[in-house]
Fold this sequence. Notes:
Layout: H1 13-19, H2 39-55, E1 61-65, H3 76-92, E2 97-101, H4 110-118, E3 122-125, E4 128-131, H5 139-142, H6 146-201, H7 205-222, H8 227-238, H9 249-252, H10 260-266, H11 269-277, H12 284-291, H13 313-327, H14 339-348, H15 356-364
Parallel strand pairs: 1-2
Antiparallel strand pairs: 3-4
Helix pairs in contact: 2-3, 7-8, 7-13, 8-12, 11-12, 12-13, 13-14
Bound molecules: fe (ii) ion (2 copies).
One fe (ii) ion is lined by residues 240-241, 269, 293-294.
Amino acid sequence: MATTEVLQxxxxxxxxxxxxxxxxxxxxxxxxxxxxxxxxxLIESIKERVEDALRDGYRFLAITGELSWMVDYGDxxxxxxxxEWKLNESVFNNYPISALCRYNINRFSDEMIRSIIQLHPIIxxxxxxxxxxxYIPPPGYKTDSLTKYQVKVCLDNIxxxxxxxxxxxxxxQSKQEEIRxxxxxxxSGIIGxxxxxxxxxxxxxxxxxxHVASLAVKMAEKLKLPDExxxxxxxxxxxxxxxxxxxxxxxxxKPGRLTTAEYEQIKLHPIYGAQALCQVKALEExxxxxxxxxxxFDGKGYPDGLSGTEIPLxxxxxxxxxxxxxxxxxxxxxxxxxxGEAIDEILxxxxxxxxxxxxxxxxALFSNGPAL
Length: 372
Ligand SMILES: [Fe+2]
Ligand SMILES: [Fe+2]
């Protein structure tokens, strides 16, 4: 759609016009009978053509035009501004139509250019489309109280842009939190499923695992480790013996001495557990703690014979908690020992089986008596 007959002389346009893809609005349609430019007449002409186009099946329409031929009129600039806001209000707000407005800065006053810019929510500047921060919606022009209105709109815009920014930040943060929670729920679900599997296989492990997990978290708190570490060590301790689900019950709970073959079989449980857990990317650290919870500080443990700080911190902590809980509870193959005896035994192993510094921290957990 175009507003001047000049377009008719451009090659190829008549063909488009014949096909109905282009409609040219002659300038006479933009005037009253007295020869005065009438924004309302031009808007009505455009609306009629838009309705026709929609009836013909067109779904996306664009309008462009050259209005500089009107600037000879004394009132032309204010009429053009009126035409622009009426176009916004009556046409763009109601129909699937966009406009490309061209204004020659050499032919219009600065005030005119400013008013026109203010009437357009989107501007094209240096080949990029921008949201127009100077946009003022039509009502300001309607009531002819532009200065007052401009100030109000500017203030509103500042609020709106600030709001948008904080709103986006809030949405972003809440989405991140949702994802984190979902992730945590999935992880704890997987841990719960593993634990259930082991409990079904060997009911003794249920209490053992929860005791070890509780002690391990207390150790992490005492060591002032981050919350993330506390969550991971809780998971790791809960399922540190998950690999035992692959060891026959009869072997796990055999009342007498284990044969060498049986002992070798049991020694595989940290490997089985780690192999299952490392399938879940989020549980890699947990898998490593599970793999190494039977390593010894002096390097004589299993499965890899790691020593000292080669053993992950999580595994060194779990080793202490695991041994203490195993010693202080009855098993089919031996009786429980007292808290004091267990502490003495652990102390005697500081530097051999256990990390000596962590052993001190572990003992300190019981400064007011047994922790569980
Ligand atoms: Fe174990
Ligand atoms: Fe254990």
